Amino acid sequence: MSQSVVPAAGGEIRDVRLTEALSDRYLSYALSTIMARSLPDVRDGLKPVHRRLVYAMRQLKLDPNSGFKKSARVVGDVIGKFHPHGDQSIYDALVRLAQEFALRYPLIDGQGNFGNIDGDNAAAMRYTEARMTAVATALLEGIDEDTVDFRPTYDGEAEEPVVLPANFPNLLANGSQGIAVGMATSIPPHNVGEICDALIYLIKTPNAGFEKLVDFIPGPDFPTGGVLVEGRQSILQAYSTGRGSFRVRARWEQENLKGGGYQIVVTEIPFQVAKSRLVEKIAELLTARKLAMLGDVRDESTDEVRLILEPKSRNVDPTVLMESLFRQTDLETRAGLNMNVLDADNTPRVMNLREVLQAFLDHRLVVLERRTKHRLEKIARRLEVLEGYLIAYLNLDEVIRIIREEDEPKAVMMARWDLTDAQAEAILNMRLRSLRKLEEITIRKEHDELSAEQADLRDLMADESRRWSEISGQVQGIKKAFGPKTEIGARRTEIGAPPSDVVIPMEAVVEREPITVLCSSKGWIRAMKGHIEDVSDAKHKEGDRGRFAVHAQTTDKLLIFATNGRFYTIGGDKLPGGRGFGEPLRLMIDLPNDQDIVGLFVHDPERKLIVASADGRGFQVAEKDVVAQTKAGKQVLNLSPGVEAAICAAAEGDMVAAIGENRKLLVFPLDQVPEMSRGRGVILQRYKDGGLADVKTFSMAEGLTWSIGSGRKRTETNLEAWLGNRAGSGRLPPNGFPRSNKFG
């Protein structure tokens, strides 16, 4: 399509392809999300909104020793000057920077309600107050000394820093979470003392191996504590690739009670887990009878976490109880590691641990060099002025005469003593009180000190090893200010060993109770408590009657075989209670309306079944191979066109009895029926008319049994007349065999 340009009052209108317009705009949006919103900078570990918050607070002079200001004031300044977005999103970012349970080293000191570990929100911004912490001031240290680049703000009225000088390894120390377009980042917090040790070692050994770095940084250090139970090899793999995860568990202890009982006290929970939601989840599982070893849970927390877990019995092993809770609740979580960050060139990429540490050191080297150059420039300007002052003191009478008598004293002085414009201007601006002798001595002393400092800084710029030594000293200072010997620096997350394989009994996960499963002819299913022998009194809907009655446990899986040749699976604990008529089974499994149920079994993974279709074909199948993973079931018996599946029975004993709709009975060995996992099978019995009516397996020694009504059964042991091979036609059954042609 050709482009045309049409003049318009507001500019110009261009004809472009929609795909090109969408592509360009989506690309711009994606880049904006990646670079200006979601991914942190590897150098200072901050996203733009956090960097702008800290910088705006510095402009408001909210340092740690000053008073607090309303959070609304801070948010207003950030919106108006730097970040034209919604006030709530900015306030949420401010709140997170102040939460001690969210940030390992908070950047903001909050006063008021800033939320809690239960997941409650902070108070409105008009009620809370904030100021910077010492960590935030360390991030800003040297920002006025040309250490970083500045760029215009969104409206061009002011400037903001592209990155902070960052005299604190914030990316690893506080971590970061973010989702961009097509990429995400997830960096857990770490201990700053350990980070500093790794940085100092990396300065000495630039190509340090990951084994050694992990010796210094053995894993994350979460603000909420807990126990890291990830294996060293997994941790090493995660840090060497920049991707992985860490398994974190709650910290707990056993508290003995009077009378020989005990209770479990959880004192620390995993990072980013809301305590109230955790208690609710445990209570829900308890109500659903999925925590048979747990008796009760309650929250006795104040400023410190204290969750009480009471076992159902004093005989319950506390380790087994906690293992069951770790597997089913957020008392154990996984903290992801995906070190996807913006590098110094503003390019997003995944870095490993050594690259992240080296990027911080490289940034600190750039800051040191820029800061040194800035100081050298200031010293050069000051020395220039001081040298002018000294010339004036040496020729004081002449300077006074020129100023009093000459029309252009500045030009005369510049020509007389070869002064620079800055020197001449400084002399003219001198106060009379500066002419005393003591002031000359002070100036000479300052000149000597600055000259010495200038020489020292020039030597620093010429010696790279000395610059790295200086950075090493700065890192030592970070460790001293925020490391393990300080109030906030001690490691909170314990480095534990990977848990051993603790055998958890099934009853520890789901409460095991006996039930009787009833399924009616119309497919209504329910579970009655206990094993009921006589279910003839069970009530059903009008026009419905009982069909299947199975004894099971709440922990059992039930297998359902339908006329479409598919097996469906449902848990015993998922069935409706015995009150009423139950619920339609079709609502629990995806059983088509034109299909019917022909078999209901308690799953036994060691057992085999025999399945057959109405045309007399079938095979044996292992039960472990028919368990369905979805509601749609699992196709096992493939049907011939126009044929419906009809039979499913347990493959027990050594013989098979098959009876057709033509009332012919055939008995043959079970080992003639092959075992398959899926298919049509082999011919079990041949028919001229009709098809297969029923099939049963039995033991020849015990005889063939069938139901004759009213709960009575008959057993026939003399079966020679009906013995044959598979695919035979058979002969009429014994006298008294049911007219329904069913074994019952």
UniProtKB/TrEMBL annotation:
SMART domains named in the record? TOP4c (SM00434)
Known catalytic reactions: ATP-dependent breakage, passage and rejoining of double-stranded DNA
Query: Which InterPro entries does the UniProt entry name for this protein?
Result: GyrA/parC_rep (IPR006691), Gyrase/topoIV_suA_C (IPR035516), Topo_IIA-like_dom_sf (IPR013760), Topo_IIA_A/C_ab (IPR013758), Topo_IIA_A_a_sf (IPR013757), Topo_IIA_dom_A (IPR002205), TopoIV_A_Gneg (IPR005742), Type_II_DNA_Topoisomerases (IPR050220)
Which terms under GO biological process does the entry name?
chromosome segregation; DNA topological change
Query: Keyword Transferase on this protein?
Result: no
The protein's UniProt keywords, in alphabetical order, are: Cell membrane, DNA-binding, Isomerase, Membrane, Topoisomerase
- Topo IIA-type catalytic domain residues are 39-502
Q: Where in the cell is it found?
A: Cell membrane
Entry keyword Cell membrane: yes
Top-rank lineage group of the source organism: Bacteria
What are the site positions for Transition state stabilizer? Answer: R126
Broad EC category: isomerase
Q: Name one Pfam family in it.
A: DNA_gyraseA_C
Return the GO cellular component terms, semicolon-separated. chromosome; cytoplasm; DNA topoisomerase type II (double strand cut, ATP-hydrolyzing) complex; extrinsic component of plasma membrane
Q: Recorded E.C. number(s)?
A: 5.6.2.2
Q: Which residues form the active site?
A: Y127
List, in alphabetical order, the Gene Ontology terms for molecular function in this entry: ATP binding; DNA binding; DNA topoisomerase type II (double strand cut, ATP-hydrolyzing) activity
Major location category of this protein: membrane
Q: How does it sit in the membrane?
A: Peripheral membrane protein
Chain positions of site Interaction with DNA:
K47, H83, H85
Q: State whether it acts alone or in a complex, and with which partners, per the record.
A: Heterotetramer composed of ParC and ParE.
Summarize the protein's role.
Topoisomerase IV is essential for chromosome segregation. It relaxes supercoiled DNA. Performs the decatenation events required during the replication of a circular DNA molecule.
Q: Which family does it belong to?
A: Belongs to the type II topoisomerase GyrA/ParC subunit family. ParC type 1 subfamily.
Q: What is this protein called?
A: DNA topoisomerase 4 subunit A
Source organism of the structure: Denitrobaculum tricleocarpae
**Top-down, what is the taxonomic lineage of the species of origin?**
Bacteria, Pseudomonadati, Pseudomonadota, Alphaproteobacteria, Rhodospirillales
